[in-house]
Amino acid sequence: MANLPAPDQLESVLDQAWQQLALGASRRHSPFHQGVLASIGEAGVDARYVVLRGAERSSHTLAFHTDRRSPKCEQLLRHPQVAWCFFGDGVQLRCSGLAALLEAGDPLESAWDRTTSFGRRCYRVEQAPGSRLDGPDSGLPASALDPNEPAEAADSGRPNFARVEVTLQQIDWLHLGHAGHRRALFEAGDGWQGRWIQP
Ligand SMILES: Cc1cc2nc3c(=O)[nH]c(=O)nc-3n(C[C@H](O)[C@H](O)[C@H](O)COP(=O)(O)O)c2cc1C
């Protein structure tokens, strides 16, 4: 895919950023489908890829799904401030904001309903992500790999499923170009306030 155009108007830059995030959430092959999420852990900064599962401009939120038992969840409960960084088609988006862990309620139920059976399987690992194992293993129960397993069993990971919604406070847009880079910073408040900054 060719590089995205670099709009001359701040409003068009912001439109483009949200369009790319919306495409990232809905299209598996978009470069914005996954990004690196940085959080604050006990030993300092921590970062990992997560898949973008929602991007809603009206509420300024991005979302991902995760295993409730994974260490990042405790980190986010203690320190909700996160940065989520994406790159594709010549554009870097550094999105930062406050993360909220959803463990119940309608948004969680509908997120689970939209999850494929392959996706649901991730939540069936027997131990928490990051637990020590005696050898190389996926940690999935043998039944999860049995094609004749009853369909309901695919839901056994449901209690481990969580959705994290990040309410964005800032989007830092950087466009790489041969003739020079461009950069703009947007801050959320009553709407978004943008300004050009030195790339
Ligand atoms: C491309 C890619 C996408 C990933 N997507 C997710 C995801 O959406 N949710 C998730 O919890 N982990 C995802 N992971 C695994 C995480 O990067 C990480 O290894 C795992 O969640 C444990 O993280 P933690 O120890 O910081 O909690 C993904 C990994 C890769 C390489």
What does this structure look like?
With 199 residues, this protein is α+β, with helices and mostly antiparallel strands. The protein has one domain: Electron Transport, Fmn-binding Protein, Chain A (Pnp Oxidase, Chain A, Roll), CATH 2.30.110.10. The protein is 20% helix and 38% strand. The protein has four helices and nine strands; from the N terminus they run αββββαββααβββ. The protein has helices at 10-26, 71-78, 106-114, 117-121, and strands at residues 34-41, 44-51, 54-56, 61-67, 81-88, 91-102, 161-175, 182-189, 191-196. Strands 1, 2, 3, 4, 5, 6, 7, 8 and 9 form a nine-stranded antiparallel β-sheet that branches. Strand 8 and strand 9 form a beta hairpin. The protein is elongated, with a radius of gyration of 19 Å. The model has no long low-confidence stretch (mean pLDDT 95). Flavin mononucleotide binds at residues 34, 46, 48-51, 64-67, 70-72, 129-130.
What ligands can be seen in this structure?
flavin mononucleotide
Helix content: 10-25%
Total count of domains: 1
Low-confidence stretches at least 5 residues in length (pLDDT < 50)? none
Short summary:
With 199 residues, this protein is an alpha+beta fold. It has helices at residues 10-26, 71-78, 106-114, 117-121; strands at residues 34-41, 44-51, 54-56, 61-67, 81-88, 91-102, 161-175, 182-189, 191-196. Strands 1, 2, 3, 4, 5, 6, 7, 8 and 9 form a 9-stranded antiparallel β-sheet that branches.
